[in-house]
Amino acid sequence: DYLLSTSYDRTACCWDFYTGDCLRIFRGHHHGILPIVFIPSNHDTIETDFEDEMNIYTKDIVITGSQDTTAKIWSFETGECLKTLEGHIGAVLCLITDTQGKLLFTGSGDGTIRVWNINRGIELRVYDQHHAAVINLLITNKLLYSISADHTARCWVIDVGDCTRIYKGHHHSVSCIQVEHGLVFTGCGDAIVRCFEARSGMIKRTFKSHALAVNCIQIVDNRLFSGSVDGSIKVWDISDLKGDTIQNSKTIVKSKTINFDRTSKENRSDINSGIDDREYRERRAQNMV
């Protein structure tokens, strides 16, 4: 098993998960590297019909986004840069692949989302309706959801690129998003978690209790978990809006996601939070889910 990391030192690294050894360094970006994604060579849908193009899908690949405005596709085995994707005029802040592994979506500080053919390394289209930086992306079925510093979240149809819904009402940058059972949940810099009806875009519920920006949310069963810069993780019953708080983290929660291991012993879930002193803290939530 491997761990991939990115750094402001312009490199990405591959680590042995168990020994902690650095196995590979990816060098070539000119500024700090932010998002990273791994695509295995045995992906279900491998494109092999481009005789004039190097078939990237014969290899395990890594894709990175950088403050230098580019995304790069790397050979996981050798660390060689196979393609450089150019087009953004702002830092590449987030990236995600479609469910088939054919398309790459990059979100940028320039306010655009660009769609790329991974195998060819070419740009296919641009989504340019956001008015500020695109902070994160999420794909559910054939829909792409984006969140932005323009105080909105948007829903796009991947096949045609149309924006079908705008989720408004935020008073600050939208920092995180989850989609569940026809509902869209967003966390925001205004310290509020909002629930929208996915189809109509109407606000269905608001969750107010955090003192500072909400920067991560996760849904497990009928519980909504939200992490905030105020140092707390709050647990909400989605049906009745009641919440509870875990006040064990004394420092800023910086993790973009909250991960839960449903296979843990005694049906317990592990809440992992990244904090600013770089210490890894594990919280047990035995009685909450």
Descriptive report:
The protein has 289 residues and is an all-beta fold. The protein has no helices and 25 strands. It has strands at 2-6, 11-16, 22-27, 33-39, 61-66, 71-75, 81-85, 92-97, 103-108, 113-117, 122-127, 134-140, 143-148, 153-157, 163-167, 174-180, 183-188, 192-197, 203-208, 214-220, 223-228, 233-237, 243-246, 270-274, 280-284. The strands form seven sheets. Strands 4-5-6-7 form a four-stranded antiparallel beta sheet, with no helix packed on it. Strands 8-9-10-11 form a four-stranded antiparallel beta sheet, with no helix packed on it. Strands 12-13-14-15 form a four-stranded antiparallel beta sheet, with no helix packed on it. A hairpin with a 5-residue loop joins strand 14 (153-157) and strand 15 (163-167). It starts with a strand and ends in a 5-residue tail after the last strand. Residues 45-53 and 241-289 have low confidence and may be disordered.
Give a short summary of the structure.
With 289 residues, the protein is mainly β.
Characteristics:
globular; disordered C terminus; 289 residues; mainly beta; 4-stranded antiparallel beta sheet; 25 strands; Methylamine Dehydrogenase, Chain H
CATH architecture call of the domain at 1-128 = 7 Propeller
Category from helices, strands and their pairing: mainly beta
| CATH topology term of the domain at 1-128 | Methylamine Dehydrogenase, Chain H
Text of the CATH class of the domain at 1-128: Mainly Beta
> What oligomeric state do the depicted chains represent?
single chain
Extract low-pLDDT stretches: 45-53, 241-289
> What is the topology, as strand order, of the major beta sheet?
4-5-6-7
* String of helices and strands: EEEEEEEEEEEEEEEEEEEEEEEEE
What is the residue-mean pLDDT, rounded to a whole number?
83
Main sheet overview: 4 strands, antiparallel
Distance between the termini: 28 Å
- Radius of gyration equals 19 Å
